């Protein structure tokens, strides 16, 4: 009998999904280099964006409606679509009831950990979020020179504005250090979370054989199916409205990721955004396959 795949190895479908992200970033970045319109448009290297009045496309403007209402509220979209899915999909519990079934609780825990990672990286990490701490640690600071020149500000310690939000709020420029792309981070984390949670609907509805392997406490490597609570493929594979909305949110996220890659940021800022997002996905969706205690706590989607 052939040896089973390592629990850390993605399944075939997961491998395709994981490869979509670097591919999207490379395609978007190449577009920026090759498209004559994008090349000709002036680019501000401090803000890593085009100027609004000479932007090469609607999507190159920060004020574009998808940025304002979708990405800037990105975690709210992920949250509402997932909660709706979790409480209306028959594989997780009785439809039409808010009963706290074990599968719903484990789903909420997975969401909670991914959300905590989003909070730590973009909102708050015992003070400024990780993105802002990384920026300051790599030598960045809030540049208030223009305001000081205009006499609107006393030039005291500019490092007191230790978050990007506080700096921009008073009219300063967040300048100098390494700025992990918050957009790339959020769009990758949110859409990969959705794909991982909805994958069992795809595989069950198409009856595809996608074996996720797990490490048992006795060291044996088995199929995740051995721990699955009995739900038929007909139930697990139902394309409910919640599942479709989730895929819609993930699809729009991928499109906005392409736009971010094409019109904003350096290659390195996009790469670090991708890696920081993927580290959260690894902890919630791959680590439990090799750590039985963690698997018992947060489970695996569809199991
Ligand atoms: C076993 C451990 C369990 C741990 C449980 C912890 C649970 C914590 C749950 C807390 C619930 C939070 C619910 C959150 C609901 C929302 O999503 S409301 C907020 C909506 N806001 C957003 O979506 C903002 C998204 N925007 C950003 O993150 C940033 O703007 C950006 C896109 C990263 C860009 O940054 P800029 O600086 O603006 O460029
Ligand atoms: N796809 C996109 N569409 C519009 N604006 C984007 C964008 N990707 C990044 N930006 C903008 O680029 C800046 C840096 O993004 P981030 O670091 O989150 O990736 C942010 O500007 P503002 O902070 O001025 O809104 C953000 O709005």
TrEMBL record:
One of its GO terms (biological process) is phospholipid biosynthetic process. The keyword Transmembrane applies. The chain crosses the membrane at residues 12-34, 65-87, 108-126, 180-202, 245-265, 271-288. The keyword Amino-acid biosynthesis does not apply. It is a multi-pass membrane protein. Its EC number is 3.6.1.-. InterPro entries: FIT, SCS3. It is found in: Endoplasmic reticulum membrane. It catalyses: hexadecanoyl-CoA + H2O = S-hexadecanoyl-4'-phosphopantetheine + adenosine 3',5'-bisphosphate + 2 H(+); an acyl-CoA + H2O = an acyl-4'-phosphopantetheine + adenosine 3',5'-bisphosphate + 2 H(+); (5Z,8Z,11Z,14Z)-eicosatetraenoyl-CoA + H2O = S-(5Z,8Z,11Z,14Z-eicosatetraenoyl)-4'-phosphopantetheine + adenosine 3',5'-bisphosphate + 2 H(+); (9Z)-octadecenoyl-CoA + H2O = S-(9Z-octadecenoyl)-4'-phosphopantetheine + adenosine 3',5'-bisphosphate + 2 H(+). One of its GO terms (molecular function) is coenzyme A diphosphatase activity. The active site is at 183, 265. Keywords: Endoplasmic reticulum, Hydrolase, Lipid biosynthesis, Lipid metabolism, Membrane, Phospholipid biosynthesis, Phospholipid metabolism, Transmembrane, Transmembrane helix. GO terms for cellular component: endoplasmic reticulum membrane. Belongs to the FIT family. Fungal FIT2B/SCS3 subfamily. Fatty acyl-coenzyme A (CoA) diphosphatase that hydrolyzes fatty acyl-CoA to yield acyl-4'-phosphopantetheine and adenosine 3',5'-bisphosphate. Preferentially hydrolyzes unsaturated long-chain acyl-CoA substrates in the endoplasmic reticulum (ER) lumen. This catalytic activity is required for maintaining ER structure and for lipid droplets (LDs) biogenesis, which are lipid storage organelles involved in maintaining lipid and energy homeostasis. May directly bind to diacylglycerol (DAGs) and triacylglycerol, which is also important for LD biogenesis. This is Acyl-coenzyme A diphosphatase SCS3. The gene is SCS3.
């Amino acid at each position: 009998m052939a040896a089973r795949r390592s629990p850390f190895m993605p399944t075939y479908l997961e491998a395709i999904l994981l490869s979509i992200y670097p591919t999207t970033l490379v395609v978007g970045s190449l577009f920026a280099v090759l498209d004559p319109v994008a090349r000709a448009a002036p680019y501000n290297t401090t803000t890593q964006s085009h100027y609004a009045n000479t932007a090469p496309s609607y999507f190159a403007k920060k004020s574009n409606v998808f940025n304002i209402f979708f990405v800037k509220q990105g975690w709210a979209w992920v949250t509402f679509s997932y909660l709706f899915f979790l409480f209306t999909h028959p594989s997780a519990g009785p439809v039409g009831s808010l009963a706290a079934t074990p599968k719903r609780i484990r789903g909420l825990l997975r969401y909670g950990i991914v959300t905590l990672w989003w909070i730590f990286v973009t909102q708050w990490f015992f003070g400024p979020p990780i993105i802002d701490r990384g920026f300051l640690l790599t030598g960045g600071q809030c540049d208030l020179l223009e305001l000081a020149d205009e006499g609107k500000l006393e030039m005291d310690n500019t490092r007191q504005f230790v978050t990007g939000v506080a700096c921009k709020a008073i009219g300063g420029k967040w300048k100098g250090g390494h700025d992990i792309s918050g957009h790339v981070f959020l769009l990758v984390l949110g859409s990969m979370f959705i794909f991982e949670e909805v994958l069992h609907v795809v595989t069950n509805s198409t009856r595809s054989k996608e074996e996720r392997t797990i490490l048992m406490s006795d060291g044996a490597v088995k199929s995740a199916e051995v721990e699955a609570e009995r739900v038929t493929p007909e139930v697990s594979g139902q394309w409910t409205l919640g599942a479709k909305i989730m895929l819609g949110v993930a699809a729009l996220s991928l499109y906005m990721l392409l736009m971010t890659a094409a019109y904003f940021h350096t290659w390195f800022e996009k790469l670090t955004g991708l890696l920081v997002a993927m580290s959260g996905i690894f902890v919630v969706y791959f680590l439990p396959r090799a750590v039985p205690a963690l698997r018992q706590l947060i489970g695996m989607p569809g199991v």
